[in-house]
């Protein structure tokens, strides 16, 4: 029902008159982000409606699957462009004509802030509303910190902003974020019907800035104080959460206009913080790794039935991940007893959900009904995908794959969950290496987000595409890796763990190293982690690698001495730390210190002291250097693949973006200078990666390899972040 009087807008904004209602549709795929053109168009639309006496109300909707996914994240860090989003929101709120938002799908960040600036809000059942800016190192900066508490109270507003969680339409109604929940999927139709009702009722313009949820000052102050106390404890070095609390405090203390000024100041502080840069890098990197050259070129094979070989911790975790995604799983074990243990390992996970009230007994039964088990490989004859998770030994894996080759139908994808082994060799145990791929899950496999998709020499493109499609249905974060010992993550871990071992033998205690790495932002230090995972795993790997180890290479034997005593970590009650009576947190062990002292004597080391900063510099330099090697050898497609791997599989702090992003922030020349300085003591271990050297010589950074089409020249900063 276009009329001649419709304002001429831009392609991202469609305005249509429906009698006296101006329907404004934001059409900026993929998520209708509020880029500069959309912001300009919205101002024009509101101005046009204001001027036109025939328009009584404006309805804002989004085209496609979402209302608005937020501000355009790609604009952060670039010079700001007028109009600013908070001004657009203010203009909407100030309109003398009724403005209504009908939201569906993602209604996030600036998208929700815009809806809150409208005078009335309707949500369709598909709506997911939230203020997730905290995940990007930001705060809601388009009035969200001022309007939300006025509308729903400081405590609830803070909970939403500090968690960044999405709420559905029903909860949004209960919280008072929206006025009504509509039906169906057509936001324009539902919205138009409601606006007509509002107009018929003579509903007044109603501005959220005037809403009264902050009226009870004492109660509101109590909610803010409580949120500040918890945030101070939980934020672990994150910058924006306390700024969010400050902004809400301003909402309570100041008139709306002054509060908006304060919100802007705090928003800009967050925007300028390195954490914002790190978190935005992580956001885009996580989306980039979900694609691979093969996903663009080939179609995934259909996966309806899956087999898992092995019912141990890993196999059971993988089975749970598959069951959670709604797939039927057939588990293979070598005998009935092992199969019963495998089933019990799976059932344990669901039983604990039932015990915690997260799952009903009936739902648990329904999930387990999709599990079947067998001791005969022939049960896998009709599986579309089989994931092998047996003992980490080449001969064992080869035997499993020979069996799979015998029983599986043509076109079945045959995957190995090996963490280190040569997948080309495993593939060679079959007559169909094109169907073989690595799917490296991380323990616990049903929880950890990372999935390394390891592409072997002969893996077919559609098998790779199938693995990526599987990752999506399992809600994993996939990273494409090439074949080498340890792929991306474990190969790097082996190197930076050695750097830590050198520091330990040279004088630092495991406690100091763990503390330094935690202070850097890791949730757990390397020795605490080793104790948690079990030191026997690393020991087995070191023994396997012993024959190929360079005899001139420095080899710290402390961990081996502990393993020889059976001190494998938490599961044996002691490792690098003591865990009396099943304790989850370790206490320092004088006997471990005695082992370390003895090893120092044996190695002829005179212990020296280290600052925490030096420990971190060595750990990170080793990590970045090996990350550069991994990219150089094309084991990782780009530096951002290394970043996503280390963030999602190894606890690297996400707010630093990943080790390669961190290296760019510190400046690659600084990292290289550190490596060259450390090489004075141990030139074999500290060999600068050829890629790192080349980038420094050309004045480039790792980011330039993430988007080779836009080579960036980096002016390195001096200080370590
Ligand atoms: C903000 O609003 C600040 C304000 O408070 C103040 C300002 C002054 N911008 O995730 P997907 C791209 S901060 C630009 O795969 P899904 C994404 O990169 C913002 N691009 O889809 C990808 O591109 P590509 C607060 C964006 O369906 C494509 O869209 N908002 C944005 O699984 C598809 O993304 C948020 O933090 C954006 N805002 O999930 C929400 N969002 O195809 C962030 C997405 O080239 N976004 N893209 O790889 C999300 O959480 C999810 O993307 C969403 C869709 C749930 C919307």
TrEMBL record:
Which GO annotations describe the biological process of this protein? Answer: fatty acid beta-oxidation
Give the CDD domains listed for this entry: crotonase-like (cd06558)
* Molecular-function GO term, any one: enoyl-CoA hydratase activity
Q: Where in the cell is the protein located? A: Peroxisome
Pfam families recorded: 3HCDH, 3HCDH_N, ECH_1
**Matching InterPro entries:** 3-OHacyl-CoA_DH_NAD-bd, 3HC_DH_C, 6-PGluconate_DH-like_C_sf, ClpP/crotonase-like_dom_sf, Enoyl-CoA_hyd/isom_CS, Enoyl-CoA_hydra/iso, NAD(P)-bd_dom_sf
Q: What is its main location?
A: other
3-hydroxyacyl-CoA dehydrogenase C-terminal domain: which residues?
Answer: 486-579, 615-700
Kindly tell me the pathway this chain contributes to.
Lipid metabolism; fatty acid beta-oxidation
Q: Which reaction does this chain catalyze? A: a (3S)-3-hydroxyacyl-CoA + NAD(+) = a 3-oxoacyl-CoA + NADH + H(+)
Is Ribosomal protein found in the keyword set?
no
Record domain 3-hydroxyacyl-CoA dehydrogenase NAD binding: where: 305-481
Looking up SUPFAM superfamilies in the UniProt record yields: 6-phosphogluconate dehydrogenase C-terminal domain-like, ClpP/crotonase, NAD(P)-binding Rossmann-fold domains
Q: Which domain of life is it from?
A: Bacteria
Indicate yes or no for the key word Lyase. yes
Q: What is the similarity comment for this entry?
A: In the N-terminal section; belongs to the enoyl-CoA hydratase/isomerase family.
UniProt subunit comment: Monomer.
Q: What is this protein called?
A: Enoyl-CoA hydratase
Q: Which source organism? A: Pseudoduganella buxea
